[in-house]
């Protein structure tokens, strides 16, 4: 917090080598430092009248025969540089500045000259000086510090440590003004080997959040770089192509739709602007895509002592899985340890749920008949008795013998008489479609997008993104109806079982299970259905540069946002939380989104230490600190978000009456009927059709279709199952849905563009989107509740019964 | 009523428009004022009431095996699809509705029979709620530059203008009359808004009768006078809101636009807002998109774009932004006109005023704004909204567009408006409903002749009475963004303008988010307030109790039991209904406030439970309290079970009981 007396945003300059021992002010020009100060003293800056500065700034006074220079070192926003405020007392008349620098002209009202400047600590030498008696310098309490003065190591060094991560180096920096977002901020644009950071003046990086979600731009997130000069000169910056002009402005487009637009200071600083721009281009090109910023976990581990529990169960131990299984009440299921060493499938988690009656050996055999060994596993158990399973495609080349087939069948049936097989990719876009749509959406949302004018709506339609969101929601509602209202077990089958299966099964759970709509529940859901289930985040988010990029996860987040938009009282988390998760997908601070499979993630984080130990008995325990910090996951929100921001993750509109407990009480009787006769259905385009066989390899006599009262007309229905079940949307209000089930609308007008996410780069949109008063209202409320709390103890404790109610007082007195 | 051929048809099916398979069976009633559909379902007996004046088109479709379909489209965007078993009945209903929906005399309109059971005094008070002379005073008028002119006394100069008008002080009656002769329909330049911060003003008029070369000295003097009334600027903008082509075409008819060469120090500007016919067909196209049964993403987005509706909205907004900027940033006065100066001019002037002045963003200020720029300046409500049977080509959603502009602004500045979306929707509804007298006729003169104020009630009073329903919980008058002029980006961006689902699909409950954040916030806000009050009350009580206890101990030491008892009862009396309240409160802390003990009152968020102070607004409302002809209202009688979908207004319920 700077006082208005000072120019709000100091600029930092490094003197070129020619002008060593000089200081530069963008306002006044150059001035020389005393060539050999006779004295140096360090004290605290005098307090400013009527202003309350949150910190005490060290004041350095240099004295030389001709000059008296007082410098105020500032706890800088920069890790590397200090801000200095200096006053030069007027020189005695007749004395010229040495070296012919222009003398200062405009004195400030109090006679002293004030300005801001900055520079590298080493650019001028402040030699250790002997102490001199106080010459009546302005400053009430001057804490004299004599002896060596090493600003860089004392003051600046600490800033460096607080701002930079271990292993981080500052490559270049330049002062500038952040444009586009309100308010405009002056500060410094810094490029390091890890990130581009815009640090507003006066802002201090919190120790707790080494990466700021607000001001830091991780290098790998940079999607497009533009340098702008004047009104028309725009250069798209690519590695290898040199910068053709001195940029007045740099535009950094994030792949997460964020935009950082910094206008550089004019007036002698062009070289720096040039430097920092080039540095960003280079650093971006050199940034190692898949590398985790280990420094973050190190810096975090340094702070937290002892063992810490991850914020949510990371599902890396069988206990986690067992707890989760019990929570779901899946009594017919158990945790299988067959993949403990990742020898069934590396893309599968070490543990998963299989039917209780199936032996691990059967599991192993059965899984062999599925693509990449991803056999049927339980995703979610509906309290009504039905199950949601997911599996990969059948491995057609396998040569199944009869027993294997039986194992496969029994795992798919999992004890249910009715099983509905859902071809996941049916009606859903392909991975290529998703990628193309996302690219188009990104192009459309760029600030200079030419499509944004008259043809905005059709251009938006042309991205197909909203259409894909729509089809995902529609399919998920259908499956939800099957699982909850019709109490059918559903097997989601996708060839790879790592993309849309995760999307559908998590959406179904969000629609059907109120538990999944809590903050904790949602994070566990993503951890289970995406992270542990082996969604290839690294590949899909395009970090590897592979061709298989397709942001399925971001599509999922959009679907969740649509739900949040349609049911604002049903979700404990807010849009900010979804945004945070959206942005975190590109931040390489934890391994959550940096690996494709649980196996790779585990390898990296060293969670196989115990395993290694078994192999090499002589191996000593890894250092304790190591294993602690490696447990960091994306769910450690405090890595990037301040506690105020984390508070905003809570949806103030969440209605606690939708709490999961009340819902679980209403459990319906289990419909699980073991053994034949059983029937298998294929669900496609809103219609159930009987299947003769479950597996593609041969007819199975046990699975002959029986007629079912649920069987709708075999005609192809244009209506989705959800429509059939519940009549029409307008009917929803009156018709009681199964408790906890949400059926989203997916008609054209109901699917919205997630403006707060995709149009973030367009400042004109931002205006309306910031409704700071929602949180304001919450503040008011919590303030009142706080008041009430404070009030209550005064009444309630010991003489609670006496004071509480005059009636009781009366009755007692009788 | 002579026009009702059949007052009641049974076994009518009301088809849901999204899924044709789903229909509800019920009975259709025709009354003098409403079409009523009562569901047969015994538990709900849900009622759908539609005012005749809301009916826009009735379409009889080809008879099918199930019956004869009748499609009723309403001006408030409700769509009723009925299937009547007998062709004959259908025809009767059709013929009756055709006549009922097109009254030929003002006296047939609902407002003349609507009686909310207010006495004469209350009604008169209602009409004085919005006072334009107060409003001009608030603007800082009259002052050194502007004065109230009586030139239009008894509508001598212009019959579509009000009698009280502000004109520049230097404009003499001679100049005004001269200028009026040079203006279409004699609508001479008059003040619409005065920006007291810098003396700039917004004036409005109709197009000049310039033809290809005609000039009028008085008109030139009039514009000069407007410029001089603003010492801060040496020019004025003249904004013609029409597309240039349209304006040029008008020259052939002896009308046209100001020639910059003839008028000194004007800057002339065209802003292409299309005419009422383009707007009408654009809305038509958009409503067709809304009527699609299950629109896909591309159906919807392409249809919306092709309708051009949002483009037109943007054009109006752009004009408003231009004027607001000219006034607030350049300090220049603006004269706005279109052809006759009562459609586009009204839109643009009111949008600009809304941007400039936070007062118009309050509940009362918004009423004033409509009163000023629309009602008093002779916007032709009767013609545009087809209140009486007339030329269908005159009908156009002019004020609908303005209302939508306000909504678009509310979306962009959620904290800037004191009122909420519901307020806008209700105003839109009543512009067509003819339930209140405010929007009757085409001009103030006609309204006076009809003695509207003596025979009907004012909507403003009604809205004001129920203002609690219309408050925007996010409103912050002191927010930096919302203080003073609303600043919109100059760069045009179409994606800022969104489809207003809440308006055009508002009877499609399935298309609305099923939980309303606004309602929730309102509940929270109310709760906050109650908590605050309660805290105060509790603290007071605590003090009292402590005092009493103190007394009690004193008393105990001295007196015997019975007297103690009496001592307490007096203290009880002093705090009125203390005990029950007290214990109830403690239970409900902190999530519930005491008055909301009944579960469904406060925190229910579904759209269906929208608190509606205006029963007629929900698709299936309970009845108007003041309906005079109740002969056909037998089905529900007094015992109609409150349907879930329409949260009822207690008062109107009671009124119904009384009348029934």
Q: Share of helix among residues of chain A?
A: 25-40%
Percent range for β-strand residues of chain B: 5-15%
Rg of chain B is: 28 Å
Spans where pLDDT lies below 50 across 5 or more residues of chain B = 560-616, 618-660
Number of helices of chain B: 22
Q: What count of structural domains of chain B? A: 3
Largest sheet of chain B: 7 strands, antiparallel
- Number of E-state strands of chain A: 23
Describe the oligomeric state of these chains in a short phrase.
heterodimer
How are the strands of the biggest sheet of chain B laid out side by side? 4-3-2-1-7-6-5
| Total DSSP helices of chain A | 25
Helix content of chain B: 40-55%
Q: For the residues shown, what is the average pLDDT of chain A?
A: 68
The geometry of chain B reads as globular
Largest interface (CB within 8 Å) is between: A-B, 76 and 90 residues
Q: Give the biggest beta sheet of chain A.
A: 8 strands, antiparallel
Q: Can you tell me the overall shape of chain A?
A: elongated
- Secondary-structure-derived class of chain A: alpha+beta
| Rounded radius of gyration of chain A (Å) | 32 Å
Strand order of the largest sheet of chain A: 11-10-9-8-15-14-12-13
Percentage beta strand of chain A: 15-25%
